[in-house]
Design a protein that fits this description.
The protein is of the alpha+beta class. It has 14 helices and 25 strands. Helix 4 crosses helix 7, helix 4 crosses helix 8 and helix 13 crosses helix 14 (about 520-525). The longest helix is centred in the middle third of the chain and has 21 residues, at about 325-345.
């Protein structure tokens, strides 16, 4: 068999784990952990326990058991693909700031994979009777239960589900959930909504032909290959070629043993089978990435024809469900630069600084923010809003444009912008015909949602932010630290700054006050006393006032 350590030009999953361990980003648990009740909840605490994103790690479980007391030889790894951006960066092999450019270049300049005869992923082959019966086939794999208490079965989550267009021969890889039904049967959910899974489109084509659809579920593969699965690439674009573009080298692939499909040669585990095109089966409940439990629906059934894996295979799982999660990080890091490039490069909109997909609780798809440079024409702001609302079918239910000084990761900042920089009667547009994503809503018409676009940018100059100027806040922080007070985590805004409605005279008055010379300011104002104005009348624009003629 081929040694996985040959010069491939990219890291396989084993080598990726070694890199994470070298960077202190992999925690190994050697004590017994129950995959059905403990494993995913333990890792989940990283996301719900107040641990900062940059401190989240991958977990490797070497002593996996189940609720029946069975043990498993195959370790389970969770969080090794995108628990935090640093892990994603290591998997991609590029600095975090270069990821957007790398994705854009890979999509534009894909590299076709190369086929090999022998591969590590086929060192162990299980077929026929080896697949059927308790403790065999799928039942022999340490598949965790993602959401104990709600999930109806162990589910494969870190999948690259591979199918083929029977007309063109092109393959698609998508990340779809797959629940265990028997030792040789899976329930497979490939999204059927408009703009949904290309795998489902393939299923429809095989159904018209009256033939079962060949399918291969890849679990654990070189990280760049794993990363293409969740991305929404154009229909007909082969993910393996884009993965080649990501690493700058052809990805090695091998033909499956029992179905006519090609899979990454360095995969940890491959489940081969045929998807029925006539019979559907109840699937779920399963806690989904939109943050709610997906209730039982009819979905596709896959009959397993073979399971192949490396001798030293590691079973890979991801934390999904309520965001933030590993599945949301893996999308956000790639989606945000793609959206930014779409606005800047494809639509040619000037002044767009950042696109941010809100992650926590809402799942990336619902709320999207555009940071826009001050002074951009209103037409461009709205072009950006419309552009973000229609790039992906299910992303952008609420699209909000904000200024550079508004931190889209801070909800209070967003509410602040909505409160003072938007007028609902003038700055909100409601559009129809958006693809629904999330729990079923009986109020939707034909399964559609609507879109709310909000311009929450400044429309005119405003007075400064009512906080001490930066130099005074910095000096006060130095004093804070000298006094040994609790460590500070500054939140934006933490100092005052001008929003245009300010002038040099007021600036000088503030300087005098800070220097203790406020009495001079009092003498100035006394010169402009008058009896012909009402309270709260602005001093500007009045004949004889301090700014007369200015």
């Amino acid at each position: 068999m081929v040694n996985s350590r040959t010069d491939k030009g990219y890291k396989d999953f084993h080598e990726h784990l070694e890199a994470l361990e070298a960077e202190g980003l992999l925690t190994t648990i050697n004590q017994p952990v129950n995959k059905d009740t403990e494993l995913h909840p333990l890792v989940r605490w990283q996301f719900r326990g107040g641990i900062p994103e940059n401190q989240r790690k991958a977990f490797r479980f070497t002593n996996v058991i189940d609720s029946k007391g069975r043990t498993f030889d195959m370790p389970v790894v969770v969080g090794a693909l995108s628990t935090n951006p640093a892990i994603y960066s290591i998997g991609m092999g590029v600095p975090l700031e270069d990821i957007g450019n790398r994705w854009n270049d890979a999509i534009t300049n894909p590299i076709d994979p190369v086929t090999v005869e022998n591969a590590p992923c086929q060192e162990i082959i299980m077929e026929g009777d080896q697949l059927r019966g308790e403790g065999k086939g799928l039942d022999a794999l340490p598949v965790p239960i993602s959401t104990p208490g709600y999930d109806s079965a162990p589910y494969l989550t870190a999948t690259n589900v591979t199918t083929r267009n029977p007309e063109t021969g092109t393959q698609n890889m998508g990340t779809y959930r797959a629940g265990l039904k028997a030792s040789d049967r899976l329930a497979l959910r490939m999204v059927a909504r408009p703009g949904g899974a290309e795998g489902h489109m393939h299923w429809e084509m095989w159904k018209k032909m009256g033939q079962k659809m060949p399918c291969a579920i890849v679990v654990g593969c070189p990280p760049p290959v794993a990363y293409v699965g969740p991305q929404k690439l154009p229909v007909g674009v082969e993910e393996m070629a884009v993965a080649g573009g990501l690493v700058g080298k052809a990805i090695r692939q091998v033909k499956c043993k029992t179905v006519d499909l090609l899979v990454p040669a360095e995969s940890e585990l491959v489940i081969e089978g045929l998807v029925d095109v006539e019979i559907l089966e109840p699937e779920a409940p399963f806690a989904e990435s939109h943050g709610h439990v997906a209730l039982e629906d009819y979905n596709c059934v896959m009959e397993v024809t073979a399971i192949t894996h490396r001798r030293d295979a590691v079973f890979t799982s991801i934390i999904s469900q309520l965001t933030p999660s590993e599945s949301s990080v893996i999308k956000r890091i790639a989606y945000e630069p793609i959206y930014l490039s779409h606005l800047r490069d494809t639509l040619g909109i000037k002044g767009v600084k950042r696109v941010y997909l809100h992650e926590a609780l809402t799942n990336l798809r619902k709320i999207l923010f555009i940071q826009i440079e001050r002074g951009v024409p209103t037409t461009e702001v709205w072009r950006a809003l419309y552009g973000c609302s229609n790039l992906a079918a299910a992303i952008g239910k609420y699209v909000i444009a904000v200024d550079e000084d508004i931190d889209p990761e801070n909800g209070d900042s967003i509410f602040w912008a909505l409160a003072y920089r938007s007028n609902p009667a003038l700055d909100i547009q409601i559009l129809k015909h958006k693809v629904r994503y999330g729990p079923k809503d009986p109020r939707t018409i034909n399964g559609e949602e609507s879109i709310c676009l909000i311009d929450a940018t400044l429309k005119a100059d405003m007075p400064p932010i009512a906080l001490p100027k930066r130099e005074y806040m910095e000096a006060a922080r130095n004093l804070w630290d000298k006094l040994g007070l609790p460590p500070l985590k500054p939140e934006s805004p933490w100092h005052g700054y001008s929003l245009g409605d300010w002038n040099s005279e007021w600036d000088e008055m503030a300087k005098r006050a800070a220097q203790g010379d406020y009495l001079e300011n009092g003498r100035r104002s006394a010169q402009y006393r008058r009896s012909d104005v009402a309270p709260n009348t602005s001093v500007r624009g009045l004949p004889g006032g301090p700014f007369d003629g200015v």
